[in-house]
Design brief:
CATH superfamily of the largest domain: STAS domain
Order of helices and strands: HEEHEHEHEH
Low-confidence stretches: 1-35
Largest sheet: 5 strands, mixed
Number of domains: 2
Helix content: 25-40%
Distance between the termini: 55 Å
CATH class of the largest domain: Alpha Beta
Number of helices: 5
Number of strands: 5
Shape: globular
Structural class: alpha/beta
CATH topology of the largest domain: Transcription Regulator spoIIAA
Strand content: 25-35%
Length: about 150
């Protein structure tokens, strides 16, 4: 059946799976679909910081933390910033855009930014946008630290 006037609205699939009769299940499914993003700076050296990111990097205020953290680290004198994305399960175009903004900020300061541990859908997102040729990618944080 085609979308549009030939398709009654009650038969259109909802973009998020919902269980209408069970409010608790609906909330649970909604919670699974929400952005869960955690960031922590685990290692700092005089000129290097490693930011460990876990969860999903998507549209929303949490993803702005990527730019904020980079800006704060640059102001604190860090010239090498490594993002450990081994715990990231999903990234959308907004998340990728946050990394572009962070890279631009680092480059304006004469600093370097690298991505370590990105795999699966996350690495594929950068590859599809050809940004894997712009960002330096490394298998591990130690490899990134040695190369920067």
């Amino acid at each position: 059946m085609a979308w549009g006037r030939d398709c009654p609205s009650r038969t259109r699939p909802h973009p998020v799976p919902l269980i209408i009769s069970e409010v608790g299940a609906t909330a649970h499914i909604y919670d699974k679909m929400r952005l869960v993003l955690e960031m922590s700076i685990v290692r700092e050296e005089p000129d290097t910081a490693v930011i460990v990111v876990t969860g999903r990097i998507m549209l929303g205020p949490q993803s702005q933390r990527i730019e904020t953290e980079v800006r704060d680290l640059l102001e604190a004198g860090r010239r090498r910033i490594i993002f450990d994305l081994s715990g990231v399960t999903h990234i959308d175009s907004t998340g990728i855009g946050r990394f572009i903004a962070a890279l631009n900020a680092a480059m304006r300061q004469g600093s370097k930014l690298a991505i370590a541990g990105a795999g699966g859908q996350v690495r594929e997102g950068f590859r599809l946008t050809r940004l894997d040729t712009v960002f330096p990618f490394f298998e591990t944080v130690d490899a990134a630290r040695a190369a920067l």
